[in-house]
């Protein structure tokens, strides 16, 4: 049996770096889909829909591949926090989150393009934010410029200083790709990183 081609339906350098940890050969592809939430769409439904939509968009050009799609949103009290896009919006978002719990929902889809069968799930992760002063928030935003990160912070960088406590089963989910659950899905397709990973 020829090796299964693995494709990550993402242009995110963070997701790529996470998947590289498994030591499996893979390529990446830009799914180029509309990620606009539907009216009143809950966070879990949104990330499930988009994770699968990304995988299926890439499947049109990769008909024999096993495709990984993922999407993430942050929310507070049910309100979805988008990517801030700029300094003022990031400061406002972090001011809203300071001293409160932010929930990240990460949708994951593993799509067998040949059969059209998709396995999907949502991995939640909660972040208890520290009580932060305006000066701390402004200083963080100026230094890290988290303008394209949900919740206005990068947990893999200085953003860790914003947190009081993390709660979840897979810390990788906070960065954008729940590797623990992904390994389980890959094994169901006969791909085991512990026995098939490259040494390169």
UniProtKB/TrEMBL annotation:
Organism domain of life: Bacteria
Gene3D superfamilies cross-referenced by the UniProt entry: 3.90.950.10
Localization (cell): Cytoplasm
Annotated catalytic residues: 71 (proton acceptor)
EC number: 3.6.1.-
Reaction equations catalysed: N(7)-methyl-GTP + H2O = N(7)-methyl-GMP + diphosphate + H(+)
UniProt cross-references to CDD domains, sorted A to Z: Maf
One Pfam family from the record: Maf
Keywords, alphabetical: Cytoplasm, Hydrolase, Nucleotide metabolism
Site, as annotated: Important for substrate specificity: 14, 72, 156
Cofactor(s) essential for the protein: a divalent metal cation
Family: Belongs to the Maf family. YceF subfamily.
Function text: Nucleoside triphosphate pyrophosphatase that hydrolyzes 7-methyl-GTP (m(7)GTP). May have a dual role in cell division arrest and in preventing the incorporation of modified nucleotides into cellular nucleic acids.
Protein name stated in the entry: 7-methyl-GTP pyrophosphatase
Native organism: Marichromatium bheemlicum
């Amino acid at each position: 049996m020829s090796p299964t081609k693995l494709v990550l339906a993402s242009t995110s350098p963070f997701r790529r770096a996470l998947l590289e940890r498994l030591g499996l050969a893979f390529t990446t592809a830009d799914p180029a889909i509309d990620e606009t939430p539907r009216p009143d769409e809950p966070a879990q439904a949104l990330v499930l829909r988009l994770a699968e939509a990304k995988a299926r968009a890439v499947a049109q050009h990769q008909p024999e591949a096993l495709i990984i799609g993922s999407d993430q949103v942050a929310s507070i009290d049910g309100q979805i926090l988008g990517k801030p896009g700029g300094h003022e919006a990031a400061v406002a978002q972090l001011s809203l989150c300071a001293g409160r719990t932010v929930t990240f929902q990460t949708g994951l889809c593993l799509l067998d393009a040949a059969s059209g069968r998709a396995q999907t799930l949502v991995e939640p992760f909660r972040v208890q934010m520290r009580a932060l002063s305006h000066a701390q928030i402004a200083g963080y935003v100026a230094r890290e410029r988290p303008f394209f990160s949900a919740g206005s912070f990068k947990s893999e960088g200085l953003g860790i200083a914003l947190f009081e406590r993390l709660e979840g089963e897979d810390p990788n989910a906070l960065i954008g790709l729940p590797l623990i659950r992904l390994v389980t899905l890959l094994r169901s397709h006969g791909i085991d990183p512990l026995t098939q990973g490259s040494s390169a």
